[in-house]
Every structure is written in structure tokens, then in C-alpha cells.
Design a protein that fits this description.
- The protein is mostly helical.
- The chain folds into two domains: 3-37, no CATH class; 44-83, no CATH class.
- The protein has helices at residues 3-12, 16-37, 44-59, 69-83.
């Protein structure tokens, strides 16, 4: 028995009402699998930011941060508070 035949046999065991929920779950699973298989391609804004960061590294320009990740996030939070 093929996988398709096994799936059909299982589907045949559900009521018509249950099949609506199963169809929704299968569609969500199919979309999740398709999304996982698509190569991660950054959008234009991300590409521009990556190029800007690369240029900053090459030219030694821009703001440089030395410290822990916690310190970095604290700095970002402080900037958000200043903007509010």
C-alpha cells in the first residue's frame, strides 16, 4: 500500500465534519513545509542594510559597540526611551 493509499484510507475513516478541520490542518502543514523549503532570500531593505554594514566594516566608519549583548540591548532600550 502506498503512502497516498494509506492517507486516503485514514481520511475515509473521518466524518464529513471532521474532514473540514483535517483539510485546514493539512493546508497549514503544506504551507509550513513549502515555506521551510524556500531559500532564505533577504528583501531589498535587508540587502541594503547588509551592504551598508559591509561598507562600514571596510571603511572603518559608523558606530562601533564593544560590550555584552545585554549592554547593547540596554543601549537600544535607552534610545527608545529618548525617542518616546
Amino acid at each position: 500500500m502506498s503512502n497516498r493509499e494509506k492517507c486516503i484510507a485514514i481520511l475515509d475513516s473521518f466524518s464529513e465534519g471532521q474532514l473540514a478541520n483535517i483539510a485546514a490542518m493539512l493546508q497549514m502543514m503544506k504551507q509550513t513545509i513549502e515555506d521551510a523549503l524556500i531559500a532564505d532570500v533577504p528583501n531589498a531593505v535587508t540587502v541594503a542594510a547588509m551592504r551598508e554594514a559591509e561598507e562600514m566594516i571596510q571603511t572603518g566608519t559608523g558606530q562601533h559597540f564593544q560590550g555584552t549583548a545585554a549592554d547593547f540591548f540596554a543601549m537600544l532600550d535607552a534610545e527608545d526611551d529618548d525617542d518616546a
